[in-house]
Amino acid sequence: MLYSFIFLRHGRSLADDEKVYEGRYDSPLTNIGIDQASNTARLLVDKNIDHIITSPLKRAKDTAKIIGTIINAPVEELVLLGTSKN
Fold first, then answer.
1. Confidence (pLDDT) at 83
2. Is residue 47 part of a domain?
3. DSSP 19
4. 53 lies in which domain range?
5. How many other CB atoms are found less than 10 A from the CB of residue 71?
């Protein structure tokens, strides 16, 4: 069986606007970020995506949920994606 992966970054966040290094700072999406996630989802509708995995950070989860809703794919939070040794 062949698997394909698509990696996406979250939409624009408040920290992006504040020019703050986010790291573990749990910055929410801005209205622009919400629009970016929606627009990206519309590009992915015909890609047969059957599962979305996201980090626990709000900006990533919200991006994933928006996309998952539009493309009708379940979203799974993977805590390991949000951890850091620093």
1. 58
2. yes
3. T
4. 14-82
5. 19
CB-based burial, 5-26: b 16+ in 10 Å, e otherwise: eeebebbbbbbbeeeeeeeeee
Q: Based on C-alpha coordinates, what's the Rg of the chain?
A: 13
Residue 2 belongs to some domain of the structure: no
pTM over 0.90: no
Domain with 70 in it: what CATH number? Answer: 3.40.50.1240
Classify burial at 76, counting beta carbons within 10 Å of its beta carbon; exposed 0-12, middle 13-18, buried 19 or more.
exposed
Instruction: Express each pLDDT in 13-43 by its tens digit.
Output: 888 888 877 666 788 999 999 999 999 999 9
CB 86 within 8 A of CB 60: no
How many domains are contained in the chain? 1
Helix, strand or coil for residue 58?
helix
